[in-house]
Automatic annotation (TrEMBL):
GO terms for molecular function: ATP binding; metal ion binding; phosphotransferase activity, alcohol group as acceptor. One of its GO terms (cellular component) is Golgi apparatus. This is Glycosaminoglycan xylosylkinase. Transmembrane segments: none annotated.
Amino acid sequence: MKLKQRVVVICGALLLLGLAKVFLLDGGEGSAASRRDLRAFRKMEASLPLAKGARLTHTLQSPWEVAAQWVGPREVYPEDTPELAAVLNALASARVERADVGYKGTQLKALLVLDGGQKVVFKPRRYSRDYVVEGEPYAGYDRHNAEIAAFHLDRILGFRRAPLVVGRHMNLRTEIKPVATDQLLSTFLMHGQSYSVTSLLSPSYLLSLSLPLCE
């Protein structure tokens, strides 16, 4: 066999040995760094699903006390948070004990106090999810689900610095009005048999009788 042919055969054999090492010995997942990345991704992926309707398995602490202990200098909640689903469920279902106007800012919001004393900011829905706001970047109102999406994206990326957020249906007549402060009640108007909230920011700021917040 000529020298050139021998070189070609040897190179081919080395190539086959290299491929065999990658796919057989390394399990087809590339370098050690790639395998570590894949294991980390699979671990993160397994931790993302949240059980609907989850509740704390112990009663020594309220969901709010559990969440308060998570907060650190660089994160709102740690990577390993088996109680996260239960805390989010509490945000979405806990009874509203007090409702007041929001504070600061130019977007409408309400300050609610949930059962157990937890204060939360409630932003109402102004548009359907598929509505397109045209014009300047700051045109229109805030999206009701923008911060919900931001929270879950922040969690998927592993930053864990966004505040806990959930979506929630609120009944104005039965959940808000009975526990509303006088300041918030002053923004309510009667239209026939239904109520409209003209502003959740303050009784006078951004008040518009022609553009009620909800009916």
